[in-house]
Design goal:
Layout: E1 5-18, E2 21-34, E3 38-42, H1 49-56, E4 64-69, E5 72-73, H2 79-89, E6 90-94, H3 105-114, H4 124-137, H5 153-165, E7 171-175, H6 183-198, E8 203-206, H7 210-213, E9 218-223, E10 226-232, H8 235-246, E11 249-250, E12 253-254, H9 255-258
Parallel strand pairs: 3-8, 3-9, 6-7, 7-8
Antiparallel strand pairs: 1-2, 1-4, 4-5, 9-10, 11-12
Length: 260
Protein backbone atom coordinates (compact mmCIF):
# COMPACT_ATOMS: atom_id res chain seq x y z
CA UNK A 1 0.00 0.00 0.00
CA UNK A 2 1.25 3.50 -0.87
CA UNK A 3 0.53 6.84 0.73
CA UNK A 4 -1.78 7.73 -2.17
CA UNK A 5 -3.97 4.66 -1.68
CA UNK A 6 -7.19 5.30 0.24
CA UNK A 7 -8.84 1.88 -0.24
CA UNK A 8 -7.01 -1.43 -0.08
CA UNK A 9 -9.00 -4.66 -0.12
CA UNK A 10 -7.03 -7.85 0.41
CA UNK A 11 -8.73 -11.17 -0.39
CA UNK A 12 -12.12 -9.98 0.88
CA UNK A 13 -14.80 -12.66 1.25
CA UNK A 14 -18.35 -12.17 2.46
CA UNK A 15 -20.57 -15.17 3.14
CA UNK A 16 -24.21 -14.93 4.23
CA UNK A 17 -26.09 -17.75 5.92
CA UNK A 18 -24.97 -20.73 7.98
CA UNK A 19 -24.51 -24.44 7.54
CA UNK A 20 -25.69 -25.80 4.20
CA UNK A 21 -27.52 -22.57 3.34
CA UNK A 22 -24.71 -20.18 2.47
CA UNK A 23 -24.31 -17.56 -0.22
CA UNK A 24 -20.89 -16.17 -1.11
CA UNK A 25 -21.52 -12.54 -2.03
CA UNK A 26 -17.83 -11.65 -2.39
CA UNK A 27 -15.27 -14.25 -3.30
CA UNK A 28 -11.66 -13.26 -2.59
CA UNK A 29 -11.79 -9.67 -3.87
CA UNK A 30 -8.55 -7.68 -3.90
CA UNK A 31 -8.72 -4.06 -4.99
CA UNK A 32 -6.87 -0.76 -4.59
CA UNK A 33 -8.28 2.73 -5.12
CA UNK A 34 -6.05 5.78 -5.03
CA UNK A 35 -6.85 9.09 -3.41
CA UNK A 36 -8.59 11.34 -5.93
CA UNK A 37 -9.96 8.58 -8.15
CA UNK A 38 -13.54 8.54 -9.45
CA UNK A 39 -14.54 4.86 -9.67
CA UNK A 40 -17.78 3.37 -10.97
CA UNK A 41 -18.84 -0.10 -9.80
CA UNK A 42 -21.12 -2.00 -12.18
CA UNK A 43 -22.60 -5.48 -12.43
CA UNK A 44 -25.90 -7.35 -12.63
CA UNK A 45 -28.12 -7.93 -9.60
CA UNK A 46 -26.47 -10.42 -7.27
CA UNK A 47 -22.98 -9.69 -8.57
CA UNK A 48 -21.71 -8.47 -5.19
CA UNK A 49 -21.49 -4.73 -5.85
CA UNK A 50 -23.94 -3.74 -3.09
CA UNK A 51 -22.15 -5.98 -0.60
CA UNK A 52 -18.90 -4.36 -1.64
CA UNK A 53 -20.33 -0.90 -1.00
CA UNK A 54 -21.58 -1.94 2.43
CA UNK A 55 -18.09 -3.08 3.34
CA UNK A 56 -16.43 0.03 1.86
CA UNK A 57 -18.91 2.15 3.82
CA UNK A 58 -18.18 0.31 7.08
CA UNK A 59 -21.84 -0.74 7.22
CA UNK A 60 -20.81 -4.41 7.26
CA UNK A 61 -17.69 -6.44 7.96
CA UNK A 62 -16.10 -9.05 5.70
CA UNK A 63 -16.20 -12.74 6.64
CA UNK A 64 -12.48 -12.89 5.91
CA UNK A 65 -9.77 -10.71 4.41
CA UNK A 66 -8.63 -7.18 5.22
CA UNK A 67 -9.99 -3.74 4.42
CA UNK A 68 -7.55 -0.86 4.89
CA UNK A 69 -9.16 2.59 4.79
CA UNK A 70 -6.58 5.38 4.58
CA UNK A 71 -4.03 2.94 6.01
CA UNK A 72 -6.17 1.74 8.93
CA UNK A 73 -7.36 -1.87 9.02
CA UNK A 74 -11.07 -1.58 9.77
CA UNK A 75 -11.94 -5.23 9.05
CA UNK A 76 -12.43 -6.31 12.65
CA UNK A 77 -13.73 -3.14 14.27
CA UNK A 78 -16.92 -3.38 16.32
CA UNK A 79 -20.14 -1.53 15.45
CA UNK A 80 -19.38 1.50 17.59
CA UNK A 81 -15.89 1.84 16.12
CA UNK A 82 -17.25 1.48 12.58
CA UNK A 83 -19.83 4.18 13.29
CA UNK A 84 -17.06 6.59 14.26
CA UNK A 85 -15.14 5.75 11.08
CA UNK A 86 -18.26 6.35 8.97
CA UNK A 87 -18.92 9.74 10.48
CA UNK A 88 -15.32 10.90 10.45
CA UNK A 89 -14.10 9.68 7.07
CA UNK A 90 -17.07 8.82 4.84
CA UNK A 91 -19.79 10.72 3.02
CA UNK A 92 -22.85 8.84 1.73
CA UNK A 93 -25.20 9.62 -1.15
CA UNK A 94 -28.18 7.27 -1.53
CA UNK A 95 -30.63 6.62 -4.35
CA UNK A 96 -33.59 7.60 -2.17
CA UNK A 97 -31.81 10.68 -0.70
CA UNK A 98 -32.55 9.64 2.94
CA UNK A 99 -33.49 13.14 4.06
CA UNK A 100 -35.45 13.65 7.26
CA UNK A 101 -38.92 14.73 6.07
CA UNK A 102 -39.73 17.18 8.86
CA UNK A 103 -36.46 19.10 8.79
CA UNK A 104 -35.37 21.76 6.32
CA UNK A 105 -32.65 21.34 3.72
CA UNK A 106 -30.32 23.34 5.96
CA UNK A 107 -31.07 21.17 8.99
CA UNK A 108 -30.56 17.99 6.96
CA UNK A 109 -27.13 19.18 5.87
CA UNK A 110 -26.14 20.09 9.44
CA UNK A 111 -27.33 16.76 10.86
CA UNK A 112 -24.02 14.81 10.55
CA UNK A 113 -22.31 17.42 12.70
CA UNK A 114 -24.57 16.35 15.56
CA UNK A 115 -22.86 12.94 15.54
CA UNK A 116 -19.38 14.29 14.98
CA UNK A 117 -17.40 14.92 18.14
CA UNK A 118 -15.43 17.65 16.43
CA UNK A 119 -18.50 19.07 14.71
CA UNK A 120 -20.45 19.49 17.95
CA UNK A 121 -17.66 21.74 19.23
CA UNK A 122 -18.54 24.24 16.50
CA UNK A 123 -20.87 27.06 17.50
CA UNK A 124 -24.34 26.73 15.99
CA UNK A 125 -23.76 29.75 13.76
CA UNK A 126 -20.56 28.20 12.37
CA UNK A 127 -22.44 24.99 11.62
CA UNK A 128 -25.15 26.95 9.80
CA UNK A 129 -22.56 28.97 7.92
CA UNK A 130 -20.77 25.86 6.70
CA UNK A 131 -24.03 24.18 5.68
CA UNK A 132 -25.19 27.29 3.81
CA UNK A 133 -21.88 27.42 1.94
CA UNK A 134 -22.34 23.82 0.82
CA UNK A 135 -25.95 24.43 -0.24
CA UNK A 136 -24.72 27.40 -2.27
CA UNK A 137 -22.05 25.19 -3.85
CA UNK A 138 -24.75 22.82 -5.13
CA UNK A 139 -26.99 25.69 -6.26
CA UNK A 140 -29.59 25.56 -3.51
CA UNK A 141 -29.11 28.76 -1.53
CA UNK A 142 -32.72 29.76 -2.12
CA UNK A 143 -34.03 26.38 -0.93
CA UNK A 144 -32.18 26.21 2.40
CA UNK A 145 -35.36 26.56 4.47
CA UNK A 146 -37.57 24.28 2.38
CA UNK A 147 -38.70 20.84 3.54
CA UNK A 148 -37.81 17.77 1.43
CA UNK A 149 -41.36 17.46 0.07
CA UNK A 150 -41.01 20.99 -1.29
CA UNK A 151 -37.99 19.98 -3.37
CA UNK A 152 -37.70 18.20 -6.69
CA UNK A 153 -35.84 14.90 -6.81
CA UNK A 154 -32.75 16.57 -8.24
CA UNK A 155 -32.84 19.25 -5.54
CA UNK A 156 -33.24 16.64 -2.80
CA UNK A 157 -30.20 14.77 -4.13
CA UNK A 158 -28.18 17.99 -4.13
CA UNK A 159 -29.08 18.44 -0.47
CA UNK A 160 -27.84 14.88 0.10
CA UNK A 161 -24.56 15.74 -1.62
CA UNK A 162 -24.13 18.82 0.59
CA UNK A 163 -24.84 16.66 3.64
CA UNK A 164 -22.25 14.12 2.49
CA UNK A 165 -19.62 16.87 2.35
CA UNK A 166 -20.34 18.58 5.69
CA UNK A 167 -17.72 16.58 7.63
CA UNK A 168 -15.06 16.89 4.91
CA UNK A 169 -14.93 13.13 4.25
CA UNK A 170 -11.90 11.38 2.81
CA UNK A 171 -14.17 9.20 0.67
CA UNK A 172 -17.60 9.75 -0.92
CA UNK A 173 -19.73 6.66 -1.57
CA UNK A 174 -22.71 7.06 -3.90
CA UNK A 175 -25.20 4.21 -4.32
CA UNK A 176 -27.26 4.68 -7.53
CA UNK A 177 -27.40 8.48 -6.96
CA UNK A 178 -29.28 9.08 -10.23
CA UNK A 179 -31.56 6.05 -9.99
CA UNK A 180 -34.68 8.03 -9.00
CA UNK A 181 -34.05 10.99 -11.26
CA UNK A 182 -34.98 11.97 -14.81
CA UNK A 183 -32.16 12.24 -17.33
CA UNK A 184 -31.73 16.01 -16.97
CA UNK A 185 -31.58 15.94 -13.17
CA UNK A 186 -29.32 12.89 -13.28
CA UNK A 187 -26.92 14.68 -15.60
CA UNK A 188 -26.84 17.67 -13.24
CA UNK A 189 -26.00 15.42 -10.29
CA UNK A 190 -23.21 13.73 -12.25
CA UNK A 191 -21.83 17.14 -13.20
CA UNK A 192 -21.62 18.03 -9.50
CA UNK A 193 -19.85 14.75 -8.72
CA UNK A 194 -17.47 15.29 -11.65
CA UNK A 195 -16.66 18.76 -10.31
CA UNK A 196 -15.98 17.31 -6.85
CA UNK A 197 -13.64 14.83 -8.52
CA UNK A 198 -11.72 17.63 -10.26
CA UNK A 199 -11.35 19.25 -6.82
CA UNK A 200 -9.54 16.11 -5.63
CA UNK A 201 -12.36 14.21 -3.94
CA UNK A 202 -12.28 10.41 -3.97
CA UNK A 203 -15.61 9.05 -5.21
CA UNK A 204 -16.90 5.50 -5.57
CA UNK A 205 -20.28 5.12 -7.25
CA UNK A 206 -22.49 2.07 -7.84
CA UNK A 207 -24.63 2.33 -10.95
CA UNK A 208 -26.52 0.25 -13.49
CA UNK A 209 -26.33 3.09 -16.01
CA UNK A 210 -23.39 2.93 -18.41
CA UNK A 211 -23.83 6.60 -19.30
CA UNK A 212 -23.35 7.44 -15.63
CA UNK A 213 -20.38 5.10 -15.29
CA UNK A 214 -18.67 6.74 -18.26
CA UNK A 215 -18.43 9.96 -16.24
CA UNK A 216 -16.01 8.15 -13.90
CA UNK A 217 -12.29 7.76 -14.59
CA UNK A 218 -12.35 4.02 -13.88
CA UNK A 219 -15.01 1.33 -14.28
CA UNK A 220 -14.97 -1.96 -12.36
CA UNK A 221 -17.40 -4.71 -13.36
CA UNK A 222 -18.43 -7.38 -10.85
CA UNK A 223 -19.81 -10.80 -11.66
CA UNK A 224 -20.59 -13.63 -9.23
CA UNK A 225 -18.77 -11.94 -6.37
CA UNK A 226 -15.55 -11.36 -8.29
CA UNK A 227 -14.00 -8.60 -10.36
CA UNK A 228 -14.71 -9.40 -14.00
CA UNK A 229 -12.94 -6.33 -15.42
CA UNK A 230 -11.18 -3.21 -14.19
CA UNK A 231 -10.48 -0.53 -16.78
CA UNK A 232 -9.45 3.09 -16.94
CA UNK A 233 -12.09 5.20 -18.58
CA UNK A 234 -12.77 8.63 -19.98
CA UNK A 235 -10.46 11.53 -20.62
CA UNK A 236 -7.21 9.98 -19.39
CA UNK A 237 -7.48 7.01 -21.75
CA UNK A 238 -8.37 9.26 -24.71
CA UNK A 239 -5.62 11.71 -23.86
CA UNK A 240 -3.01 8.96 -23.63
CA UNK A 241 -4.13 7.59 -27.00
CA UNK A 242 -3.88 11.00 -28.65
CA UNK A 243 -0.51 11.78 -27.12
CA UNK A 244 0.88 8.42 -28.12
CA UNK A 245 -0.21 9.09 -31.70
CA UNK A 246 1.59 12.43 -31.95
CA UNK A 247 4.58 11.44 -29.81
CA UNK A 248 4.26 14.53 -27.62
CA UNK A 249 7.11 15.05 -25.19
CA UNK A 250 7.81 17.46 -22.37
CA UNK A 251 11.09 17.74 -20.43
CA UNK A 252 12.33 14.45 -21.76
CA UNK A 253 9.24 12.45 -20.80
CA UNK A 254 6.05 11.96 -22.76
CA UNK A 255 2.83 13.59 -21.67
CA UNK A 256 1.32 10.15 -22.00
CA UNK A 257 3.44 9.06 -19.05
CA UNK A 258 2.33 12.08 -17.04
CA UNK A 259 -1.33 11.13 -17.18
CA UNK A 260 -0.90 7.51 -16.07
Amino acid sequence: MTESTIIELIDITKVYGVGDVQVTALDGVSLSIKTGEFVAIMGPSGSGKSTLMNILGCLDRPTSGHYLLAGEDVSDLNKAQLAKIRNRRLGFIFQSYNLLPRTTALENVILPLVYNRNGTALPIEKQREKALELLAAVGLSERAHHLPQELSGGQAQRVAIARALINDPALILADEPTGNLDSKSGSEIMSILSELHTQGRTIVIVTHDLAVAKRASRIIHFLDGRIASDEQNGYKRLLKKELAAIGAETNGSTLEEKVK
